[in-house]
C-alpha cells in the first residue's frame, strides 16, 4: 500500500503545492537515475530532484517520460526540481543553460528551479534570471540551495520575489535551527539534502534505540524526524525495496521526548560549505572545483526512445 506521506503536499508562498517527500538522484548514473525514477513513480512517488551538476538529467528525463507512459499519468501529476550549475551562474548564462537543461529533461517546464550555491558576485544576477523564467512560466516555483541568512537577506533587499524554497543539508547532525526560524518568518520552505546524515547518524545509539522501540529502521526514524520538523525530504536510493521503505513512515510518530533526544544530536557542522569552494577561496589548488559529473551513458539516454 502506498504511503500516505507520498500524497501529502505543502503550500509554497506562491500557492504552488509541493510534495513533502520525494526521490533524490545525486551520484546516480543516467541508467541508475532512470531506473530509480521509474521505480519510485510506480510506487507512488510524485517528486523527483536532480541538478545539472549530477550529470544525470538525461536519465531522469527518460525515466520521467517512461514512467508517465507506464503508469498512465500526466506531466502535471509530477513535481520536478533541477538546479542551476555553479559554473553557469550569471543572468544571461543562466537563461541560456536552463533551456539546455529542459531539453535534457524532455520537459517544457520544471516545477521548482533552484540556485545550487550562492556563488560569490553572481547569485543576485542568477536570481534575477530565475525571476524572469518564473514570470515566463518556464518554472512554477523558484528557490535557492545552501543559502544562509546573509544570502537570503541580499535577495530580500532586492525588494522583489523571495525564494519559495531553500534546500539545505538537514539531518540530525545538521539541523539549521537559526536559519529554519528565519525561513519560517519569511515564508520559505526548508528542503533537506542529505536527509539521513550518512553513517554517523544512521549508526548513532540514540537513533538505533528509538528505531528499535518503534520497530523501524534507523533510516525510517531519521526521515520521520525530518518530516515532523516540517522539512521536505528527498532521500536517494537505487533499490526498489529501500525506495519503498524510505516512504513507509506514515504509520508511527516520534514522541516529544524522542524528538528532543534527536534534536540534541545537532552539531551544525556542514559536510561541505561555501568556504570549501574554489570560487570562494580564490584558489583552484586548495578549493573544491565545480564540475558536472560525467557518465559514459549520457548520450545513450539523450537518444533513448520511450517505449509505448
From TrEMBL:
One Pfam match, given by its short name, reads Aldo_ket_red
Top-level lineage group = Bacteria
Note the SUPFAM superfamilies from the entry: NAD(P)-linked oxidoreductase
In what residue span(s) does the NADP-dependent oxidoreductase domain sit? Answer: 24-266
This protein's UniProt keywords: NADP, Oxidoreductase
Regions annotated as coiled coil: none
Assigned protein family: Belongs to the aldo/keto reductase family.
Q: Which organism is it from?
A: Fructobacillus papyriferae
Provide the protein name. Aldo/keto reductase
Q: Which InterPro entries match?
A: AKR, Aldo/ket_reductase_CS, NAD(P)_OxRdtase_dom_sf, NADP_OxRdtase_dom
